[in-house]
Specification:
mainly beta, 4-stranded antiparallel sheet, 11 strands, about 0% helix
Length: about 120
């Protein structure tokens, strides 16, 4: 069973930066997408950013230009560089891997990001 482990969440002031990491417990083959989601208190989980196996990225409008997703295919690791953070970015951030032709999905346990004003 593959596990995804996020790290890098912290308390930061508005305008600051954080880098989140997502590491798989073992090498995952045939990853279609790696994604970052977030869920703020009282809100639904939303897709923040995704990166395909070919390196194509996509972002939510609310983070485009501030966040950058990247991945290390060999290490089955994904990153989320977050710059110019805003209080509305406060949420638990989750990593997700979409794998193989059957589109199995793996999730991490989440990491808390808190942005103070």
């Amino acid at each position: 069973q593959v596990q995804l482990v996020e790290s890098g969440g912290d308390l930061v002031q508005a305008g600051g930066s954080l880098r989140l990491s997502c590491a798989a417990s073992k090498t995952i083959f045939s990853i279609n997408y790696m994604r970052w989601y977030r869920q703020a208190p009282g809100k639904q989980r939303e897709l923040v950013a995704s990166v395909t196996n070919a390196g194509t990225t996509n972002y939510a409008d609310s983070v485009r230009g501030r966040f950058t997703i990247s991945r290390d295919t060999a290490e089955s690791t994904a990153y989320l560089q977050m710059n110019s953070l805003k209080p509305e970015d406060t949420a638990v951030y989750y990593c997700n891997a979409d794998v193989g032709p059957a589109r199995w999905e793996y999730w991490g346990q989440g990491t808390q990001v808190t942005v103070s004003s």
